[in-house]
Task: structure prediction
Amino acid sequence: MRRTLLTGISKKTVNEIFQTMEYGASSTSTAVAQSWLEKHFRTLGFFTEGRFSCPADRQTLNVTDSKAEVVCSIVCAKDEDVASAAASAAGGFKTWSELSCYKRAKVLLQLASVLQRHSQCVSELCELSQSSISPAGLIRLAQYYASWAQLRVSLMPEWTPQGVVAVAVSDDCSVYSLLLKVLPAIAMGNAVIVVPGKTTTLPALLLAQLFMEAGFPAGVLNVVTGSEASLGARVAQNPHVNYLTYSGCKQTGETLAKAMAGWGVPMSFSLSLSSVCPLIIFESADLDSAVDGVIEVAFKKKRDFQWVLCVQESVWDCVVAKLKMRMAGMKYVSLATENVRNLIDVAVQEAQQQGATLIQSCAPPSTDGLYPPTVLCGLAPSCASVISPPPGPLLPLISFRSSAEGVTLGNHSPHGQAASIWTEDLTLALESAKSLCVGSVWVNCHSVMDPALPLCGRRESGNCTDGGREGLYQFLRPSLSPSLPSSSPSSINYADFGSVASKFLIPEGFDPSSVPRFYSQLVGGQLRKADFGCSRSVLAPGGAVLAHCPDGGRKDVRNAVEAAIKVQPGWMKKSPASRSQSLYSLADSLEKRRRDMAISIQTQTGISFEAADREVELSISKLSDWAAQCDKEHGGIPFLPQSGSALLTPEALGVVGVILPSSKLLLSLVSLLGAAVAMGNAVVMVPSEKYPLPSLEFIQVLQASDIPGGLVSIITGGREQLTQALANHSVIHSIWYWGSKEGCQFLQYSCVSPLKRLWLHCEEEEGEGGRDWTCSNPSLQEELWRKAVVWKIVWIPTA
Result:
């Protein structure tokens, strides 16, 4: 029976649409959105103080739809507009943060109702902006974070909002990704300034108006628009802004990070748009379902990620045949820009030169705006189209022999956002998911999104977590933890940072009897001199020479990291109970050398023996705390409004570089070491440049314990030189830094390629107001633990 789907639009039957694999016709009416634009005379300004403002003397920028037709114009912000938005947000934060959790939750629930009422306008405006989204997804976001607003104080006591949060996104970021940062920030009590991209500008302005209709105080959500890539940095540089988070492509993120270096604003980056993700089909998969999933995810006009298809050799021919059958007759896919066609042509030509064959639904048209769905078969993993696939309907296809090789190929990309694996073998699915270095793994499905599921980028895919309870902590800080002081950047030559020779160099060959002792550093589980053979003097509080210690450098860091990457995977795979026993043995070893450690602290710092002994006692207790916590911290099973099971687990970062504080020398060392090692990480530690002796004495404690050699390295020397070496090492996954303002600025500037997770503290400006290492507050302990883990979600459908 012939059924008309939409009168005047299509007269094909459902069966005909199914056979040709075309999508059914859909309504393209945008009457409601057009009406909203007409009310604003098709010129939209900024949204501050709870209302639109459209200064007449500002430059404007046209917003176009998918047909390159002008939809409206937006106003480009000047510095005074940025200052006005920041002042508005500061006032909004004061009002919003003083409300009770119940009142904030009530407003967020009202927002869900408002979004429901205006869902048609939101949907149409997103479609006009080429950023389609399901209104149901936005409503789910508002409802989910309303409940967290209600529970923040009871479930996260002694955590406080960051303040004013700047949320910047790139031009091609989705509205969902934008609100996945805006809504949790507001739910936690912050005010937000949004710097939208081209595709999110109109939806962001509409949503700001809907926020006011829902009852939010003026200034809680502000939107600043413009055409300059530097706008996000100019907003975040305002003294009122306390935190910056970015979502989008890597190139824009790098530019933003470098522009913000030295401003004293903590930053986090979600770089999912540039992520290359593997779709792995094992021989045990339901091949028909797997191929259906490939067709659905690979040839969309707008994809969340760039996909690479990996197929086991034993089912290669069958998968290729099914792909050819399913792709036959598929229509052209429209390209985002004309430049994309050039990128695709170059990639296809290069792949064919390297022996690849093509599967295409039809021949490429002469027009630049369209291209057929295309699979590049038989590529080598080193091919440029596999490492960095071009945008558009192009899917690289590579093969693997064993399941272990499939996982290795899945980890081949420098990104670590997500993976989709297809197999009917549950054991293989779970083992593969555990071995893949990505934040999200979908089993027999793809692109499952829900605000309860954390999205945690690895490696080049980002350094923060969005979604779930875990994603809330980026917008909070412990009440007792000092924030990074706001400041202006120093004049730094980044290329020369850390290259200045140490002040107290003593060449090899000095008379050992002239000093009390010569210490060695711990590198790769062995006591060693500095690789260059140089030493530096360690002075007592009165100025006398206490000892000499190695003056380590880049090669010492390299040797320590090489040892760490060999031992860390095995340490991470140990059961939590085994890691716990090793840390208990470390605490026992410290107990046996308690007097020696206290004397070392007293001699180095000049404090009384009683105070030094008290610090050692606290250090033993802190190590025991981390030993006890090894097998107590775990993930869970998030409850979702859809059928399926999600497994959430914390995982180790990898290798962590730690530049230690100059206060509470032993207690701070064991607190940071315990947090990192308890969670399965390896650490390369740099003691205080002025007070290194307690850390060097601690080496004997380490060697007498069950901690594997190479898991912990302690390298002494110039702080800036060793900071530079850690920052430039590609294997270091995270850096915890206590040091100078210039060091914080250098790390923010340089640790974006490769991207690292940073935890920065400026000792010079914190002074006596820095972290209290003797405090046993649970929020400070949890902060340490959360800095030592990343999150992985495994989604398994059940129906």
Observations:
- The chain has four domains: 1-32, 40-273, 278-412+418-456, 551-764+780-796.
